[in-house]
Design a protein that fits this description.
Largest sheet: 6 strands, mixed
Helix content: 25-40%
CATH architecture: 3-Layer(aba) Sandwich
CATH topology: Rossmann fold
Strand order of the largest sheet: 3-2-4-1-5-6
Radius of gyration: 15 Å
Number of strands: 6
CATH superfamily: Phosphoglycerate mutase-like
Order of helices and strands: EHEHEHHHEHEE
Number of helices: 6
């Protein structure tokens, strides 16, 4: 089994692309309790890269796909919403579903690059986290997962026999 951990970036100041000191401190704390990871990928926006570094992980790749999902998807799936709402949105097969499917294909390619029984870390953004997670596991009931992810929160996805088989939500207390 392989594991893909997907997390939202840490805290930044309003109108800034970069983490603030509180965000660096939070990312360091989270980083002490996760990993190790054989592969780390982020969006190309500075706050995701900075989150990975503050967590203590070198970034192997940055991908624009995870930067933002665009206006059409935002209209269908505005952030923030509970996971269960995103799960419902992707069943409608619109722009949000198409974007989420691209995320899933990308996540699969990340996992193909690591060995069995190993893990990878993805750091991206609110809305992007939720859409990718619910599309990866459409057979899961997300009604107990609660609200959208906050800073450094996300999900741990389990990959076996060429597909995502289970997941758990990751919250910061």
């Amino acid at each position: 089994m392989k594991i893909l951990e997907i997390r939202r970036h840490s805290i930044r100041s309003a109108m800034s692309d970069h983490l603030n000191q509180t965000g660096i401190t939070l990312a360091r704390l989270i980083g002490q309790n996760i990993g190790p990871f054989d592969r780390v990928v982020t969006s190309t926006l500075p706050r995701t890269f900075e989150t990975a570094i503050a967590m203590g992980f070198a970034v192997d790749e940055q991908n624009e796909l995870m930067n933002t999902y665009g206006r059409e998807v935002e209209q269908e799936a505005p952030w923030p919403q509970p996971f269960v709402n995103y799960a419902e949105i992707i069943t409608k097969k619109g722009a949000a579903s198409r974007y989420a499917q691209k995320l899933v294909r990308y996540y699969q390619s990340v996992l193909e690059g690591i060995s069995e029984s190993r893990s990878a870390l993805v750091i991206n953004h609110g809305g992007v986290v939720e859409l990718g997670v619910v599309c990866s596991l459409q057979h899961i009931d997300f009604s107990t997962w609660g609200d959208s992810v906050s800073y450094c929160e996300g999900a741990r996805l389990f990959w076996e026999d060429g597909r995502f088989v289970n997941a758990e939500v990751l919250r910061v207390n």
